[in-house]
Amino acid sequence: MTETGITDPALGRLADLPRAVLFRAPTHLEVMPNLASACGTSRPLLVKRDDLTDLAFGGNKVRQLEFYLGEAQAQGADTVLITGAVQSNFARLTAAGARKLGMDCHIQWEERVTKQDPRYRNSGNVLIERILGATLHFYPEGEDEAGADRRLGEIADELRQAGRKPYIIPLAPGHAPLGALGYVVAAQELLQQIDETDLCVDEIFVASGSGATHAGLLFGLRALGSSIPVTGICVRRDAAAQGPRISQRCVEIAELLQIENSVSAEDVVVTDAFLAPGYGRASEEVIEAIRLAARTEALMLDPVYSGKTMAGFISAAKRAEGEGALIVIHTGGTPGIFAYEDDLTA
User: Fold this and answer.
1) Catalytic residue among 88, 210, 226, 306, which?
2) Cβ pair 188, 194 in contact under 8 A
3) Does the predicted TM-score (pTM) go above 0.85?
């Protein structure tokens, strides 16, 4: 099943691109009064619940997969390939989306996190991938995007020789940013919710990793005429590396949609203040943010993405003056908490 549902001319050829329907939109936009009280602020704090995107424990990658898997269907693919960290949320949801659409899935694990804990290697997203019946591969490097993609290509060639029709979801930059389109759509959805609730929004916070979610959201907002600031919380690389990545993704989105890029250099805001001690590892500040969100609003966050974003959001809520609302995008990652039991219960 494919559907677009996007007709705004400001979004260019978005309506013409194939899209597989994987969840029921819109996701909830919830007020968090208990968290606001704990942060000592009277301004509205809200969360966009993209952890509730239906498919296999949900998460932001479901929106991205609608466009990748839509293209896979259009090409007649019967197998989807993806590469990522051992506890990759994207890999877990790719396996789920592929199964939902009647396709097989091959997942390549990269050694991004030096963590040998048996829970990290066997629980969380890993367990779900095995239940879904994904075929698993291993790539020994963790910071070699081009090499990981190249190895995926080799696996795809082997599948073609066996008579299969593989489709690769690429990792490295330089490919059409189909996944980012899911958050161009999300920007339109969020603006409608803001309008319906008559909110004055001062800032939106989102995890910034591969860049697809951050860039797609920012691009969509600007294309639709919104000037709401978006702050990306770095979860994988530092701000000096992440900022140019987001800017380039916005250029690529404009090219893909065949419209003008309305994102300026000043629009690209990233912070790496919550990145340490690195990708897939959490500081005590992040762990405390996870606990505070759980104990005030019953929000379940992971240490890799949503926990770091919440730490940045809470920090801003505590220091910022003004009356406008702050919104955080909950990108999911819930299964990952089971792989980080030692960190979360220490």
Assistant:
1) 88
2) no
3) yes
Q: Are strands 29-31 and 45-49 parallel, antiparallel or unpaired?
A: antiparallel
Question: Which run of H or of E encompasses 185?
Answer: helix 181-197
Cα separation, 191 vs 224, in Å, equals 9
Alpha helices in 198-298 (DSSP H): 212-223, 239-257, 284-297
pLDDT tens digits for 129-146? 999 999 999 999 888 999
Q: Which helix (H) or strand (E) holds 204?
A: strand 201-208
Query: CB of 52 within 8 A of CB of 300?
Result: no
Quick one: which of 184, 193, 170 has its CA closest to 214?
A: 184
pLDDT in tens, 93-116: 999 999 999 999 999 999 998 877
CB-based burial of residue 264 (10 Å sphere; 0-12 exposed, 13-18 middle, 19+ buried)? exposed
* Whether pLDDT at 1 is above 60: no
What is the C-alpha separation between 177 and 42, in angstroms, rounded? 38
**Active-site annotation holds for 42:** no
Sheet holding 135-139, edge to edge: 135-139, 104-110, 79-85, 166-168
